[in-house]
Here is the input.
Amino acid sequence: MSPVPGSGRVEQLAQAVAERVVSIVMDAIDIDALLERIDVDALVSRVDVDGVVNRVDVDKLIDRVDVEKIIERVDVEKIIERVDIDSLMEKTELGTIIARSTSGVASEVLDVIRAQGVGLDDFFARWASRILRRTPTDLPLGPPTLVETVPARPELSSGSA
Amino acid sequence: MATAVVEPVEGRQGHYAGAVSRLVAFGADVGASWGLFTLGAAALAFTIQLASGTKFSLSNHQIASLVAAVIWEFIYFTYQWTLSGKTIGMAVLGIRVVKTDGSPIGARQAVIRTLTLPLSIIVFGLGFLGILTNRRRYAWHDHFAKTAVVYSWDARAARLRWLARQDTPTPT
Here is the structure.
């Protein structure tokens, strides 16, 4: 109870008057016109965004985010269905890269197999020549039309100019 | 696991091919031809079963399957040698058959070579010994068909490829 007698009624009256005045004032104000007069750009330019950002505790914010719940709500299959893999492959030239690397690997394997074969061929040919007592350099290298015949170098005689 | 790096040998194109390359190629051809024959037999059995409704298997007809296998082997080797001078196995190993003078072989040589190839095998494989002992690495069937087997792969290009791979920086 108020210490001054009759003050309660005055307060009630004041409250009622205030509410009525505010109501009348609010009705009288044209909010749209007021908003139009506000220069939002100027207002925004006065805001210190860096300061605001600095005051935000990002870690705390992240802690409050339930990532698992977000992931559960994402329909990954639907997203994948919407991805045009072919177009992506064309853009990234992934197909060319895969083809190039595959052919590269195949060619490398083939080279290794053949090189191993030639190495072993030489090994056995050397042993055969040793057993048969023949000089490997005297043996024909291949059919005449396939093996390049190196023309003999003209020997420089000591007496020539 | 450490892998041995094999540096390809240089400048062998047109040289007489050695015993290991030839025998490995022959082994690969035996495998490839038998694989294709088995596939063909399975396809034939399936087709007959589909058309007539009766179960058919070539293995139940031993003489017929033997004749079919012999004909197939003849076609396999003759056709490929006539076409390009090399079979699947030979292509993998980088060797090919040529006439003794180095020119491409024809159908006649391919046929003679295919028909005389079993001779080299039947006599305990002695026919292949010539690859080691003969100066031109002729096997018996090479003598009969007047053919030679040479390396057909460009070892020099292989070496350049190999060197290029060595220079390629590995992503970190």
